[in-house]
Design brief:
about 250 residues, alpha/beta, Rossmann fold, 7 helices, 7 strands, KR_dom, oxidoreductase activity, 3-oxoacyl-[acyl-carrier protein] reductase
């Protein structure tokens, strides 16, 4: 089989580790040139860039805090300047506040909404100015937007639930331009922030149908499908890649 997105350009926010890094590497393996953003760890971001380049694709890492609208817009526009086009936007960067609702102040609320809601909106707004027919916007949500099985996720769940509405409405708006918009809700996924051998892992596994965490590559595979030509008739959809967590 040939590469499904040969010659396309992808932008992945928060692409230096975890699901974002896996997505960036998978899109590169399918033929895309990739720009990723990072906030702090430049070395990790450059490692991802190097792995992409070893696949024969172009890559760049840009320091950009998704809570800063100007930085995000500059990163997207810079990607177009660097690579000449933009075909795929993956809104992956996220804030992950967990705790009793009483502990969160207005600054916590503002930061979470800025990263998890405002940033995907602004990124999409900027990206569609450059996208042609066949463009793809893929938002990364969370299983807790579908099923809040544990206490302490009220702020995070609220912010990720907003992506359902954004995805549906943008899918409707951009459909006539043949730009699809979809949402991927990962379930428990083995990352640094949520390791499969962590203190809650056994309990979390019990909430899934398959009994174990996903690998980041499992999420990346779904994103790659939605980014490719076989997903051209899928838009406004939510895809749960959660091992049956919401079943």
């Amino acid at each position: 089989m040939g590469k499904t997105i040969e010659g396309k350009v992808a932008f992945v926010s928060g692409g230096s580790r975890g699901i974002g890094a896996a997505v960036a590497l998978r899109l590169a393996s399918e033929g895309a040139d990739v720009a990723i953003t990072f906030q702090q760890n430049k070395d990790r971001a450059e490692e991802v860039v190097e792995l992409i380049r070893r696949q024969g694709r172009r890559a760049v890492a840009v320091r950009a805090d998704s809570a800063d609208p100007d930085a995000l817009v500059d990163a997207l526009n810079g990607t177009v300047t660097e690579f000449g086009r933009l075909d795929i936007l993956v809104n992956n960067a996220a804030a992950f506040p967990v705790g009793p609702i009483e502990q969160f102040g207005p600054d916590d609320l503002d930061q979470t909404i800025a990263v998890n809601v405002r940033a995907p909106f602004i990124a999409a707004q900027t990206a569609v100015r450059h996208m042609e027919s066949g463009g793809r916007i893929i938002n990364i949500g969370s299983n807790v937007a579908v099923r809040a099985a544990f206490p302490g996720f009220s702020l995070y769940s609220m912010s990720k639930t907003a992506l359902i509405g954004l995805t549906k409405a943008l899918g409707r708006e951009l459909g006539p331009r043949a730009i699809t918009v979809n949402l991927v809700n990962p379930g428990p996924t083995d990352t640094e922030l949520n390791p499969s051998d962590g203190p809650m892992a056994e309990t979390v596994n019990g909430f899934t149908a398959v009994g174990h965490y996903a690998d980041p590559e499992d999420i990346a595979a779904t994103v790659a499908f939605l980014a490719g030509p076989d997903a051209r008739y899928i838009t406004g959809a939510t895809v749960d890649v959660d091992g049956g967590f919401a079943a």
